[in-house]
Amino acid sequence: MSAPGQHPDLRDFSGLVVLVGAGKMGGALLEGWLRLGLDPNTVAVLEPLPSPQISALAERGLRLNPDAKTLGHAAAIVVAVKPQAAGEAIPAVAPLASAATVVVSIMAGRTLQFLAGALARPCAMVRAMPNTPAAIGRGITVAVPRNANAAQRQLADRLLSATGAVEWIEDEALMDAVTAVSGSGPAYVFLLAEALAQAGAAAGLPSALAAKLARETVAGSGELLHRSALDAAALRENVTSPGGTTAAALKVLMGQDGLAPLMAKAVAAATARSRELAG
Ligand SMILES: NC(=O)c1ccc[n+]([C@@H]2O[C@H](COP(=O)([O-])OP(=O)(O)OC[C@H]3O[C@@H](n4cnc5c(N)ncnc54)[C@H](OP(=O)(O)O)[C@@H]3O)[C@@H](O)[C@H]2O)c1
Predict the structure, then answer these.
(1) Residues whose CB falls within 8 Å of the CB of residue 8, separated by 6 or more in sequence, listed in order
(2) Cβ neighbours, 10 Å, residue 43
(3) End-to-end alpha-carbon separation of the chain, Å?
(4) What is the greatest pairwise CA distance in the chain?
């Protein structure tokens, strides 16, 4: 398990890292690597529509859309294209993989079996599921390895932890539930902010004020949870006086048809959909 900052830098890394797809997630990873001191000369990016920031990095030595034949073997290949682009993108970089390479895929719903088939050679692989707070270095990624030795796994961990915490699992079947909890989870939290704002407006607040109160409450509570050693239940209990206003609301939210059964249903639906999409 890695927490943010556990691998304080990538300055000592000198192998070749190939990033395939530098959109939202791939771009966040690249930004994290460079923030941790990875030398742009060690990075090759394959991306049909690079952002101006990524194009500018070419002047600092990053190889942008090089001819794959000029690259030699990579220490790591990170696949961050949309799942539907995998069939084209992976075979194009497969020749860059040697026995020492670790191929890291962050594609939702693409299994290790799929990855192995697309690479069409024996490879060390890691399938990972990040989430959108990766964009601000506060994501959580769950990773599952196949055929990866300790050094390959450690390199994958260092690269993935550039956008936040990393948890490792051994059972790939858990990835559907992981997707349903942390992959899709940010949307549930944003919905909470929306619903709280709507409820505030319904209780008589001007809608802009209700939206601001809800947004800052969700953001501030998330930060408090992040920084605190206490778990969520203890933090909740700390703000709940017996017979008070919070207790009145929690009686509703924690009732028989309150938030817990609703969340269980939502996570079950997302888990089932993730299974369906993976085929
Ligand atoms: N966003 C999330 O919350 C999240 C969470 C977990 C996992 N993921 C996974 O992360 C992956 C990337 O998602 P994203 O949101 O970052 O998508 P995105 O912004 O669309 O990024 C994908 C990038 O890959 C590029 N690309 C397409 N075909 C390519 C090829 N053959 N070779 C090289 N690059 C190619 C795309 O270029 P064009 O725009 O020109 O097509 C695009 O810039 C997806 O597989 C997704 O399942 C995302």
Answers:
(1) 36
(2) 22
(3) 29
(4) 70
Mean pLDDT of 141-153: 98
C-beta separation of 164 from 141 below 8 A: yes
Distance 268 CA to ligand 1 centre (A): 26
What is the DSSP code string of the chain?
-B-TTSS---TT--S-EEEE--SHHHHHHHHHHHHTT--GGGEEEE-SS--HHHHHHGGGT-EES--GGGT---SEEEE-S-GGGHHHHHHHHGGG--TT-EEEE--TT--HHHHHHHHTS--EEEEEE--GGGGGT-EEEEEEEES--HHHHHHHHHHHGGGEEEEE-S-GGGHHHHIIIIISHHHHHHHHHHHHHHHHHHTT--HHHHHHHHHHHHHHHHHHHHH-SS-HHHHHHHT--TTSHHHHHHHHHTSTTSHHHHHHHHHHHHHHHHHHHH-
Q: Which residue has the tokens 């969520």?
A: 232
- Say how many Å lie between the CA of residue 47 and the centre of ligand 1: 9
**Measured in angstroms, how far is the CA atom of residue 79 from the centroid of ligand 1?**
9
Give the number of residues written for the chain: 279
| Residues within 6 Å of ligand 1 by CB | 20-26, 46-49, 80-83, 85, 88-89, 106-108, 129-132, 183
pTM of the model: 0.94
Per residue in 231-247, pLDDT (tens digit) is 999 999 999 999 999 99
CA distance 104 to 97: 11
Question: Which residues lie closer than 8 Å to 3 by C-beta, 6 or more apart?
Answer: 161, 165
Beta strands at 43-46 and 63-64: parallel, antiparallel or unpaired = parallel
Q: pLDDT-derived band of residue 278, with 50, 70 and 90 as boundaries?
A: confident
Predicted confidence (pLDDT) per residue in 202-216, tens digit: 999 999 999 999 999
